[in-house]
Write a structure and sequence with these properties.
12 strands; alpha+beta; five-stranded mixed sheet; three-stranded antiparallel sheet; about 30% helix; 2 domains
């Protein structure tokens, strides 16, 4: 069951934009498969690369952190000796020290990258930029996913909306791991706000391809530039693998403004 970090209400449906010309994208319909990429696979080089500000930690904070770590193994020893040892390892920069923790080391970044999978969805099905960027210039399709099923039926870790802002969130080396994770992977530049993105995380991930239940998929939307032949192919594939009752919609260009209307197909 997916957990929450914030109290933001979860919408009933979230949407995945897909490119019909990409055979792997079609598998969301034909095999109900989704892929949880590494953070490094995203098209935004800042995504997941927000730095932990070790440099903001003081000597005293590092000493207290070292003391806490040493006390885990030596809690029954004379505290005066434990504190002396903690001071020694801090002074000699053996464990936590501002000088050696100024930047995340490459191996720390790679560890985040190797154990985390992130599945991106959107709150909105009618954004013309999203259709252009992720659905091959409006010739692809969208799959609507039932969020109650996503939360209840799988062992995902978190489902949260992306927070958009102009400045990096402040990530302290003293933050709990969950706080560091949330600030790193659920915050993006304000420039991406048009996507209205939500993310599902799978931590300590093994297989990055996950099969969904058919019931998790609750609708299909076909792009406004999808030709009649491919619209028919999408419809046929949907009915074959998801049943004849699943609603199928078509995005239609508005006549009086730069917008789309999502209309149910007969």
């Amino acid at each position: 069951m997916a957990r929450r970090i914030t109290e933001t209400p979860v919408p009933k449906t979230l949407f995945k934009y897909r490119d019909w010309s990409n055979k792997n994208h079609r598998k969301l319909i034909s095999k109900q498969e989704i892929y949880f990429p590494r953070p490094s696979e995203f098209n935004d080089p800042f995504d997941g690369n927000i730095p932990v500000r070790w440099d903001l930690m003081t000597y005293e904070e590092c000493f207290e952190k070292n003391l806490k770590i040493i006390n885990i193994e030596h809690k029954d020893k004379d505290q005066r000796l434990v504190r002396e040892h903690a001071k020694k390892v801090t002074d000699e920069k053996i464990m936590w020290h501002p000088d050696i923790l100024a930047h995340e080391r490459p191996e720390q970044l790679e560890k985040w990258n190797s154990i985390i999978g992130l599945f991106s969805l959107s709150l909105i099905p009618d954004n013309i930029l999203m259709w252009s960027h992720y659905s091959n210039n409006h010739t692809g399709f969208i799959v609507g996913l039932d969020t109650n099923s996503l939360i209840e039926d799988y062992d995902f870790d978190y489902i949260e909306p992306i927070i958009y802002q102009n400045e990096y969130p402040l990530i302290s080396g003293l933050d709990e791991t969950t706080d560091q994770f949330y600030k790193k992977f659920f915050h993006k530049s304000e420039l991406w706000s048009y996507e209205e993105e939500w993310r599902i995380s799978k931590n300590h991930i093994g297989k990055r391809i996950i099969k969904l239940n058919q019931s998790t998929i609750n609708q299909i939307i076909i792009g406004c530039n999808t030709d009649s032949k491919e619209s028919e192919q999408i419809t046929k594939l949907t009915k074959k693998h998801l049943g004849t009752e699943i609603p199928i919609f078509k995005a239609i260009k508005n006549t009086n403004d730069f917008g789309l209307t999502i209309t149910k197909m007969e």
